[in-house]
Amino acid sequence: MERYYVDHAATSPLHPDVIEVMTETMKNTFGNPSSIHSFGREARKIIDEARGSIADSIHADFQEIVFTSGGTEADNLALMGVAFANRGRGKHIITSQIEHHAVLHTCEALEKQGFEVTYLPVDSQGFVSVQDVKAALRDDTILVSIMFANNEVGTVQPIKAIGDLLAGHPAYFHTDAVQAYGLLPIDVREMGIDLLSVSAHKLNGPKGIGFLYAKTGVRFIPALYGGEQERKRRAGTENVPAIAGFKKAVDISQAELGEKTAFYEQLRTSFLETLQTSGIDFKINGAEENRLPHIVNISFPGTNVEQMLVNLDLEGIAASSGSACTAGSLEPSHVLSAMYGHQADELTNSIRFSFGYGITLGQTITIAEKTVKVVKRLTGK
Amino acid sequence: MKKPEDTRVVVGMSGGVDSSVAAYLLKQQGYDVIGVFMKNWDDTDEFGVCTATEDYEDVIRVCNQIGIPYYAVNFEKEYWDKVFTYFLDEYKAGRTPNPDVMCNKEIKFKAFLEHALKLGADYLATGHYAQVKIIDGEYKMLRGKDVNKDQTYFLNQLSQEQISKVMFPIGHMDKKRVREIAKEAGLATATKKDSTGICFIGERNFKEFLSKYLPAQPGRMETLTGEIKGFHEGLMYYTIGQRHGLGIGGSGDPWFVVGKDLERNVLLVGQGYDNDALYSDAIIATNVSWVSDKEKPAQFSCTAKFRYRQPDHGVTVTLLGNNTARVEFDEPIRAVTPGQAVVFYNGEECLGGGTIDQIFKDNERLKYVG
């Protein structure tokens, strides 16, 4: 059976060029980047080149990039690190109800440690309001963490406006850019961002690698102690092949930024048109402007998300509900819950399709047609 | 009949050895098998440990070994509404409910069966020890071959419609053989311990669990003649015929629970395993349901079980309409308990069953029992 992958927001396939770079690195460069001999220097060179490319991609400085094991570690390092390093100044943190669990659950852990967290609501379109951020700010607020773009519905948050607002406040501004990076241009200086998390595997890079951008002067304590790697901000011998692959993925995604957006928009439009002409009942969750190009979250009235996903999988289509699993069963999405309330039908009948590398227009239409077939069967039409 | 490869079977997988082997055997037979784990209860503790998560991990391992897709489905809400609410209501009424019977009726072979059909399944299979056979153009439910494991007691409420879509792939085997097959196939659950007790309570302390949901009202323990023998912790913690946990010392035969006086909140106790007060000779059963759709005679003889794993007793059943029946025993039976199931058999065939509601002896209702 032919299979169709439309879950690129969950993870994405490795770009062939990334595989090549990683394979070459594994074959040729095994040295420890901290060693003073030639083997070490070769490895160090790879890391520094990657750090340079990555810093450039967000208009940051070379030394402001800390490699981590991925987005989750970057989020944890930013939140935990800043909270504990700055608790002398205050104990208040502001975030939103639609953050990734890497942020939300870290905030919950911080609450247990005595920090106070304000979880800002969003409107029914999936946006945090700058006014709400402003209203929640206190003298003892030490950190504001608002995601760049939401991973479930794709809404892009008013990052620059929040950055501008915080320019006059001592609180640091962290943004989880895991879903946005590689698709949207990001300028940390212009947007007033102090900390930013990224993961490689969302942009056709390898799993197990990511970075935290931390602006020079931002005070945070490390999560891992050991050697002096990453200027003592993240101990542990670096994952050199993954970093090499990450750099390649960054280079490709930065070069293709505009092109990719245009193509995904085309796929998304065709997908929705196919659904439209089939006559099935559906509704898009989240705003139609200020959103990521590759994500579309759709509510299909009369269906049930668990039945939809299994049926789609049995048709070869890999999509998701965008929300977390416990014991393999789906918990209602906290994002849709924040947008519509706990009782809304959308919580039990919404599917996230996310486009990415390798998918064609023809496949997209096939996926839409198969989806229509499943919806019709489940709704008895 | 469709060929196995064109027949989709959803197997309800619990993470135990029985359902693992059920799925394995169907796959060997060439069916289009899908493993589905049901999450009915969340018991996540303060350290984030949840039995369901651990069981699902086992389902994943086994399904990957067998080479079948696996999914999970959440019925926590349905389980709470249909099974747990009933469970608490019965305890409030001083009875001893059987949540497994209700779970099979309302969840596994209703909500879950409907879910399986929505996944394009032709059949739902489970690892129950019971058998389904077509005899005279009708689906019959037969006891599992392993008499120690037979689970038809818990399946007594299933209808013709339900069992026509059900497969019990291990029902014709001994538990020992099931374990052997699991070992031969190298299944991850081959040596996993069988689960015991009520699924949502598991190994935990029953009293502690129940006290979280129902306020316990301590009261007196009395003999049927009104002699005070001590104090109980709450009537719901005791069941008819129970010996342990009464804390009545002294000489003579051990003491047993013989009844509950709900109005006075008194636990009635009597001495001796064979205490007369524990014996009854007839019941009225409610929620009586039959596997067969064919009309039953107004009165007939068969055998019955009044609790799980009890030997069969000869009975005469008189249908009273409204899904109720009067059941008269050939001989008096000890510790028949309201709230539990009465299940009827004709030889190997499970005919159906109901809920034990009122209990009689010599045509007199035992008001402290049911």
Automatic annotation (TrEMBL), chain A:
It comes from Caldibacillus thermoamylovorans. Residues 5-357 form the Aminotransferase class V domain. InterPro entries: Aminotrans_V_dom, Aminotrans_V_PyrdxlP_BS, Cysteine_dSase, PyrdxlP-dep_Trfase, PyrdxlP-dep_Trfase_major, PyrdxlP-dep_Trfase_small. Keywords: Iron, Iron-sulfur, Metal-binding, Pyridoxal phosphate, Transferase. It catalyses: (sulfur carrier)-H + L-cysteine = (sulfur carrier)-SH + L-alanine. PROSITE patterns: AA_TRANSFER_CLASS_5. Pfam families: Aminotran_5. One of its GO terms (molecular function) is cysteine desulfurase activity. Its cofactor is pyridoxal 5'-phosphate. Transmembrane segments: none annotated. PANTHER family: CYSTEINE DESULFURASE, CYSTEINE DESULFURYLASE FAMILY MEMBER. Belongs to the class-V pyridoxal-phosphate-dependent aminotransferase family. NifS/IscS subfamily. This is cysteine desulfurase.
TrEMBL record, chain B:
SUPFAM superfamilies: Adenine nucleotide alpha hydrolases-like. Residues 98-100 are annotated as: Interaction with target base in tRNA. Keywords: ATP-binding, Cytoplasm, Disulfide bond, Nucleotide-binding, RNA-binding, Transferase, tRNA processing, tRNA-binding. InterPro entries: MnmA-like, MnmA-like_C, MnmA-like_central, MnmA-like_central_sf, Rossmann-like_a/b/a_fold. It catalyses: S-sulfanyl-L-cysteinyl-[protein] + uridine(34) in tRNA + AH2 + ATP = 2-thiouridine(34) in tRNA + L-cysteinyl-[protein] + A + AMP + diphosphate + H(+). GO terms for biological process: tRNA wobble position uridine thiolation. The keyword Nucleotide-binding applies. Residues 280-356 form the tRNA-specific 2-thiouridylase MnmA-like C-terminal domain. Residues 149-151, 307-308 are annotated as: Interaction with tRNA. Residues 207-271 form the tRNA-specific 2-thiouridylase MnmA-like central domain. One of its GO terms (cellular component) is cytoplasm. The record marks H128, Q340 as: Interaction with tRNA. This is tRNA-specific 2-thiouridylase MnmA. It comes from Caldibacillus thermoamylovorans. The gene is mnmA.
